[in-house]
């Protein structure tokens, strides 16, 4: 049986992310009360797993790291069709950068045991590094393919996929177990209805903390993170504006004249 | 510490033997950082049938080129590329490693960083050294700028957004040392790029466009969006967007400008029907002239541009387009 792990992240709803601000005085984040949702690209990762399960004899395990409230998105994945859900949650895990996050998730995957393929969204909408999927692969010492946009062959232990490049795409052959990070182009993710989301909250998931993972507290969370945010600055982007007035024709002509004088058209 | 400081490294990229512009720009900036900490700039270049490219790297500011030249390295192959760079870094202990935020760089960088057990800052828009000579990488986030540092682990690694550093003026008098790399020997073989297909980009790439037209929620609908697209076409500009325009489905995520999208560096930026949210505006680095067209005179966007036109974009833009065409027919 094919064992699929899907790594998911609870992120502040991207449609409301502009509510998050940097307080220019205290240099801390003003988070507002934005609900946590399943990271958009992780929906594509989940969908890829569900489609494989429809074709093959497969089992889907969903794994997330985050605060206890992130459990809801793991439960939503169970309602979508995953078989088991795990949330890595511990105060010691908080403040993790991509490196410490990938390390903790890799430890979770090792504890889950056997796996054939690990799907991740290419990036999260809130930190957008793209590092977690590849670094999980590095910690597990297995190959990775980033930006998968089509899964061509899944028979046997060599899979064939198509992955996006800046200026085209590549066809890659990869031996499983492997990590595949996926793009929006891969599929159209199914969604839960509102009542489905409420219903999903009744699902059972497994919580693991630092003791269950058997990791030292200086290898996870803020302590296990090589990078730190050493400053946050709100930016002043103010410019001295000249409002161009007149009829539509006059405004258009004046604007063109200004741009010609500035040498930009 | 300063005199015994490791080098500043750039992992250069080539396609068919042609060095990417991004790599030269990184070398130019690496030169500045290296001069500040009195160390050298060293470049890793992997490929096949390479001949003479090192001169181009020296002219951009490199002191040394580690050159892997071998049919196995023709294009990016994950395991062998990672293995070569990791081994080389373990041996020579660079202080800083810079990689371009290209699709290849974004895959290779985290693999190298994890193997070296060090931190990696993503897609920064500036890199400076603080008074302790620690690398400060600037990353747009939450409508502001985060400064990310890697205080303990070495090397300090970062990927750099496209187009944020200028292309250095080549100095053909500069020379340096070429260090040929041996084939890495046994490397696991579990992944292989079978084929690379290059596609002509649709339109002008945002990151390198001299003129960028960006549209936002004020477009109203698909038709309104098309009006903004027409303006971009007439000006031979790249078309960018804000998150609301992407969420509405008028354009693809790839066109989004800002902290979770592309970073642009144009001579002229024209924002149409957008309100100047910082999440979008931080993606516009060093635009020479900025224009906003918005029907709300109180929109915050008018505090962030050089010229403002208060008008409905669907009404104004067709007139603007006609006048641009008229101007050009008179002046060509």
Q: Can you describe this structure?
A:
The complex is a heterodimer of chains A (265) and B (332). Chain A is α/β, with parallel strands linked by helices and 265 residues long. Chain A is 28% helix and 30% strand. Chain A has a single domain (2-224), classed as HUPs (Rossmann fold), CATH 3.40.50.620. A nine-stranded mixed beta sheet of chain A has the order 11-10-9-12-8-1-6-7-13, sandwiched between helices. In chain A, strand 9 (144-153) and strand 10 form a beta hairpin. With 332 residues, chain B is an alpha/beta fold. Chain B has two domains: 8-180, Rossmann fold (3-Layer(aba) Sandwich), CATH 3.40.50.620; 206-330, TPP-binding domain (Rossmann fold), CATH 3.40.50.1220. Helices cover 28% and strands 27% of the residues of chain B. Chain B contains eight helices and 18 strands. Chain B has helices at 21-36, 53-60, 78-92, 103-115, 222-234, 243-247, 278-281, 313-330; strands at residues 8-11, 14-15, 18-19, 41-47, 64-69, 96-100, 120-124, 126-129, 135-141, 144-149, 156-160, 177-180, 191-198, 211-215, 238-241, 268-272, 289-294, 307-310. Chain B has a seven-stranded parallel beta sheet with strand order 7-11-6-1-4-5-12, with helices on both faces. In chain B, strands 15-14-16-17-18 form a five-stranded parallel beta sheet. In chain B, helix 3 crosses helix 4 (103-115) and helix 5 (222-234) runs parallel beside helix 8 (313-330). Chain B is elongated. The relative contact order of chain B is 0.11. At the A-B interface, strand 3, helix 3, helix 4, strand 9 and strand 10 of A face helix 4, strand 7, strand 10, strand 13 and helix 7 of B.
